[in-house]
Amino acid sequence: MKHVLITGCTRGLGLAMARLFAQRGWRVSGCGTNASAVESLAAEIGDGHRICRCDVTSREEVESLCDDILAGPGAPDLLLNNAALINRNAPLWEVEPDDFSRVMDVNLKGVHLVCRGFLPAMIARGQGVVVNFSSGWGRSTSPEVAPYCCTKWGIEGLTQALSQELPGGLAAVALNPGIIDTDMLRSTFGASASEFPDPARWAIKVVPFLEQLGAKDNGQALTAPA
Hints:
Elements: E1 3-7, H1 12-23, E2 27-32, H2 35-45, E3 50-53, H3 59-71, E4 78-81, H4 97-125, E5 128-133, H5 146-165, E6 170-176, H6 183-189, H7 199-211, E7 221-223
Parallel strand pairs: 1-2, 1-4, 2-3, 4-5, 5-6, 6-7
Helix pairs in contact: 1-7, 3-4, 4-5
């Protein structure tokens, strides 16, 4: 049975992916920060999967998550670094330092901690794909979301460098998921977010796309199918 690990799996895109991967016969591991949402998803998708509470910005919590997953289902075949947040719309000089730091911690440092925890086991096994979720704002910019743009441009560079470090049989790719009607999008787009597909509709096309990724895709900057 193939094994996928999804960070930020209790809401938005992560939740939609977790549900659909489970339906398609994958073993699903994942994490979120909301304990009740973690319990709800774990109950929904049932036995054989492992959904844990974990803040990806905490070295101790990520190390505990990795120990638990690696001792159970083992190294993932597909590691989806999806956990992210966005700053409140504001020009850069009005963004509070604590808010800026939190965006950096989740969107960049969290990816490092998760990769650091799982990649050695994936490398030892000789196969696996890391998908770091980027954004259209990782390849372009808009006003009032500078911190978020900074992190997603960072994801693009981090992933390219990582792809050059990996041994044969593994891959790291950056994925622009497209524009989806999520809480994050509503925080920036407002009511017009409803013009875009919801996560469940999005996942129907994107999960099969992710299932097909392999070593051949190493280093690519991909865009999810619309």
